[in-house]
Description:
Blueprint: H1 2-30, H2 34-45, H3 52-65, H4 68-81, H5 86-98, H6 102-109, H7 119-134, E1 138-142, E2 152-158, E3 161-166, E4 186-191, E5 200-203, E6 213-219, E7 225-231, E8 246-254, E9 257-263, E10 273-278, E11 284-289, E12 299-306, E13 309-310, E14 314-315, E15 326-331, E16 337-341, E17 351-357, E18 363-368, E19 379-384, E20 390-395, E21 405-411
Antiparallel strand pairs: 1-21, 2-3, 3-4, 4-5, 6-7, 7-8, 8-9, 10-11, 11-12, 12-13, 12-14, 15-16, 16-17, 17-18, 19-20, 20-21
Amino acid sequence: MIAASMIALSSIAFGQKSAKHLERGNAYFDVRYYAKAIPEYEKYLRSHKTSAACELRLADCYGKVGRYEKAEDLYAAYFSKHEVNDSLIIRYAEVLKKQGKYSEAKAEYHQLSPGFYRRSECVATCDSFLVSAKEPFYKVENMSKINSVHSDIAPVVYKKGLVFSSNREETMIKKKSSNTALPLYNLLYAEGKDSLYPDHLSNFSNRINTIHHECCASFTADYKKIFFTRSIDKPYSNDPGSKNALKMYSASWANNNWTDWQTFVFNDTTRSYGHPAVEGNEELFFFVSDMEGGYGGTDIYVCFSIDHKWTNPINLGPHVNSPYNDMYPFYHPDGTLYFSSNRPEGMGGYDIYSATEHEDGDYEFVLNAGAPINSSMDDISVYWNKEKNTGYFSSNREGGKGEEDIYIIKVK
């Protein structure tokens, strides 16, 4: 009798401990700490072999941290036993594309509802990417002299080199992000005759780099004004009033320093405004925001300069923006708008797209840049020189030096 009671108490204690793993896993998941959620879900599943909801969340976590094979296995197991919706199909296909399995992803896209957003494009582009990978128009090379083992993103030409953002350890500001435990992003400057092999790499400005994130610089044609993104780092929260919002700033070059600080007129504390892209003569200003009334998670907006004041933001509409995340705009002098998006018809993750300006000012004819610029991973923040014979972008594709690397594009 005593033994039976002890076994019963032990089972209750084990069940309570197991439930704690699920509770902690869900708590981490809800605030996007996916890496910390994984071991909690794994421990829970050791004693609950048939928890479909937990398996699905674990698959999502694996996908978020780049463990795509494990995510694929869990999604496949779930799909074999349950009915699935369009959202799940998209997540599974994304994991397949991340591994270059376009034929398998295409088969999943065929299962989407007939009225799903751009279903036919999702199916058709899987074939086109296989073709573009075999017949590339561009040559892409890793800028190994610039890149670090951390994240290097958002390159733009500045004078005799490149300005880009990095969270490498040796940056000037040593404070770490409360969300990632990694160093904060700062703006760096790679200067040299050949930007692929710079002579000198330094912090861009003591005035601009702070104890917060600085990223995504954009300059006027004369390099006398800079626009950039700053993020006040704080942990994620379900309270919209305390979100980690992006804000945009500008500064002017005078007396050998960056002065005349200005905050973007539409900045607020509950919405994000970032990734500025200014037209060279400061007549147009593109940026990204999650403000209400958009088409997706983040949309691209434009403001016009009238009497040296920015007009209210105008959403670029459903040709450029999608129900997903559209960001990192870059406006070329020839009128082409480039941006990155994680819409499902891409090669995988974020892809780089271009949009042509129509006579009435709207942007249409959105095209995927294709391989080798885009890959099965995340490809973002493209910049082209005036002649369009050289470009730069960032990617976390295989074979890189760090989390994200900067690549140079050369037209063959």
